[in-house]
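Hi L.,

You mentioned the student needs an example of a multi-chain input paired with its predicted structure. This one should do, with 654 residues in total across all chains.
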Amino acid sequence: MAGLQFTGVRKTYPNGFRAIHGVDTTVADGEFIVIVGPSGCGKSTLLRMVAGLETVTEGEIHIGDRRVNELEPADRNIAMVFQNYALYPHMSVFDNMAYGLRNRRTPKEEIESRVAEASRILQLDGMLDRRPSQLSGGQRQRVAMGRAIVREPEVFLFDEPLSNLDAKLRVQMRLEIKRLQRDLGTTSLYVTHDQVEAMTLADRLIVMNAGVAEQIGTPLDVYTEPATVFVAGFIGSPAMNFLPGTTTTDGRGVTLDGSSQTLPVAPPSSASRDKITVGIRPEHLEPTSPDAASLALSVDLVEALGADSLVHGQLAGTTQGSAVTVRVDGARRVAAGEALSLAVAPEHIHFFDADDGRRLV
Amino acid sequence: MEKRVTFSRRGLAFALVAPQIVITLVFFIWPASQALYQSVLLEDAFGLSRKFVWFDNFTSLFSDSIYLASFGRTIGFSVATTALSLGIALLLAAMADRIIKGATTYRTLVIWPYAIAPAVAGVLWFFMFNPSIGILAYMLKALGYDWNHYLDGSDAMILIILAAAWKQVSYNFLFFLAGLQAIPRSLIEAAAIDGAGPFKRFRTIVFPLLSPTTFFLLVVNIVYAFFDTFGIVHATTSGGPAQATTILVYKVFSDGFIGLDLGGSAAQSVVLMAIVIGLTVVQFRYIERKVAY
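Structure written out for the whole complex:
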């Protein structure tokens, strides 16, 4: 068991492409860290650097108190679960799990007991003689997990392990991974682009964008206090509404661009500029009576999801842009073309600098 | 579902397949049936008289120690050629698989020898190993080995093995490289994390996954060594010295066209035909059940 430490980690590819622009963080022993971001943001690169499959251009990675920059993947005491499972197709399930142990000259009895234990945990008993091609997607996923846990590594690395599974199985395996990690207490790094996986699995999240760790924090922190516009828009579904605006002259409200509407909420005093971006989550906009409303919306489209409905529209009075999505109770009937009055609690309004996208506090 | 094209006029359909059928008939079926027919005849050298002798040609063939020796020699030659060309090709492909820069250039260069006619390939090696002017023979002499494939049967055999294998390397290389590139990178990475070094990875992961390719090439190379190497032998050693390089295809030619034993020669081609049919069956059987693991 060991923690993990990143110190100024950078990655530049030989062709000059800079994939990681400096990551600094410490992962505590036993912590479950999810690295989340859109494709191409460098999240897999970061994981592969921990695994030793990519070189570290600059900075240091420590596993426990060992600097691992120059260590071979085999010497880092990590195990990795790949997106396509990477099971050895010509070996039985047993041999797949035993391969790493045999390479480390583990005694035969111990290999057998560890594989038996892993297959019991993962419900793979009775399948040990099969080939990967004879297994279903979920079973292959379990074998890949089994191959990782029999090694009893210090760190688990997961590279989008659930993205090849169908939706139902994904939910089920997500729970299993969470349960397994909690029971084993092994430090884990988990890469995904799926925000639901990220929110549900993580003790802490690393939200990455274009090679930069934009925010590192617990899922709820990231949700309630997103550090940047990118994080605010990436975490949460449907995405947060962003309304560009200007601070009113008295500093006690925000005039929304292209509309006559003014949000009667004072932006933080640190807003040195007039131009700001207001962020409000769809679930924090409440339909209300016109006189109590802070915003008026003209409805374009309604998506009924059953439990709730997503109302898409535009700020009333705007000529263009400023699309707004509202999540309303599924029982409420809203029709296209209707005008909807909306209220929002001041604590649910986020302010961002319009230029660099940073949160204004 | 199988896609079927149906022709409304049968005539057109026949006209379209006719060229293929004519070529097969003229260049394959007819010579093959001639060989079958001749193999049961005893004919004088001038073709003035012939006699039906049933399978006498075959019985005399298999009681002929020279023929049996040639058979053994051919097997040795095929095994050596196949092993050498597969081994070198696998080595080159494994190295080419690692490089990214200049991969296309490298691949093109390695493929070139395949475009060279067997006789030319033979002559090329013949010159390099020529005891009086060959550079390799000269270098061997400097190392203390007196190379002379005119006199030494083993030297001559090594020469044709080298020439035959060299020509086949490019073909094998292409298939091996394709096979290697079809192995998912993540498998190799998983094995690296699992603590297997480069050689162990190759032995326990890459090579088993390459086995379908290897098997296919094994059959193709044996067929090549058995039947397509006439040009190389003819251009370099002409089967000598003292029949040391007279492999079966060459013996068919020398017995038939030089020795003018037409019946015996035809019987030999029938034997070769049986071998190639056998090998093709093995290959087809194998390709039909594609899954190897």
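You could point out the following to them. The beta strands of chain B are 41-43, 50-52. Chain B touches chain A through 19 residues (CB under 8 Å).

Best wishes,
N.
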